[in-house]
Design a protein that fits this description.
2 helices; 60 residues
């Protein structure tokens, strides 16, 4: 049986994808940290609630 070789990624593509994944992961960590802070303070609101309140306050 013939062994298949896994193709290696172009180094530029690999570097760009690693940078993208690192950035996405760090943004996720920031969002989770903020969510935890809001939950601990009791200030967390769903985005739809915040949007609804902002729409009501701008239309009055």
């Amino acid at each position: 049986m013939k062994e298949r070789k896994i193709p290696t990624l172009n180094p530029r593509i690999r570097e760009a994808s690693e940078q993208y994944l690192n950035k996405a992961n760090s943004e996720k960590q920031v969002r989770l940290r903020l969510l935890k802070q809001q939950l601990m303070k009791g200030t967390y609101q769903l985005n739809s609630t915040i949007l609804a309140k902002s729409l009501v306050s701008t239309n009055q």
